[in-house]
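Example for tutorial group B:
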């Protein structure tokens, strides 16, 4: 690990582009795409070659692409598969047996701000102001706990929301839910770039009306307790 200068050492991760380091991972134009080096850091630290990495909300498939490049087995699924190698499944019912994965990486919807599809089961249709958002995410976390091996790692990427004059600390609310079933290992701040709100007009509005543009996402890293079965 000492010689691994490609691994982030601090809890602030700032990558210049989505594809940095992994030019063919995912689709940089996909709304809400995960930075490939974020996935790379998680896969390198929390799984070994040959182990299974799961991404149950795969979108454009960044996490599976990076995991395979690094010699891991990867299973990616999504309610709305956008590639042939992404399975169709609901993240609240993983098509996988118990205790088989070393790592699950989840970059979930943060609220109802992006339309990912028309399927009413899409979790991107529920506002993070609605307590139901956290109830459904709890069901996703329960599946992660069932499928991870004891000691396996859950990494969950999410942002807070500021909309219509209301700030919702979705990240801390989700971490409270995840901590019921997992042991928190650490929290990383993932710097956001190239968002639609990163424009002079929005920056002007943020100063004029005294609010902040979202500058980062959280990456919550948690461990499934050892010595307990899944479920
Ligand atoms: C932020 S995007 C994931 C981005 C992805 N990591 C990438 O790099 O492209 C969230 C994804 O969650 C999916 N999703 C929403 N509700 C879901 C559900 N109930 N089951 C599975 N996937 C769901 C959406 O279709 C969307 O693709």
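The residue assignment follows.
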């Amino acid at each position: 690990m000492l010689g691994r200068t490609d691994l982030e050492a601090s809890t602030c991760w700032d990558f210049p582009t989505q594809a940095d380091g992994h030019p063919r991972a995912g689709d940089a134009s996909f709304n809400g795409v995960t930075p490939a080096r974020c996935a790379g850091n998680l896969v390198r630290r929390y799984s070994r070659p040959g182990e299974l990495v799961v991404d149950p909300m795969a979108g454009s498939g960044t996490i599976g692409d990076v995991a395979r490049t690094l010699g891991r087995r990867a299973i990616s699924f999504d309610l709305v598969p956008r590639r042939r190698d992404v399975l169709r499944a609901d993240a609240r019912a993983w098509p996988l047996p118990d205790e088989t994965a070393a790592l699950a990486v989840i970059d979930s919807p943060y609220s109802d701000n992006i339309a990912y599809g028309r399927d009413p089961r899409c979790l991107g249709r529920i506002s993070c102001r609605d307590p139901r958002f956290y109830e459904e995410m709890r069901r996703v976390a329960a599946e992660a706990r069932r499928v991870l091996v004891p000691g396996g790692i859950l990494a969950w990427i999410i942002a807070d929301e500021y909309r219509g004059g209301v700030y919702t600390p979705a990240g801390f609310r989700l971490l409270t839910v995840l901590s019921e079933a997992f042991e928190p290992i650490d929290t990383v701040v993932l710097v956001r770039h190239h968002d639609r709100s990163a424009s002079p007009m929005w920056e002007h509005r943020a100063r004029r009306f005294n609010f902040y543009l979202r500058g980062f996402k959280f990456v919550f890293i948690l461990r499934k307790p050892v010595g307990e079965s899944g479920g």
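The first strand starts at residue 12 and ends at 13. Compare this with the pattern of hydrophobic and polar residues in the output above.
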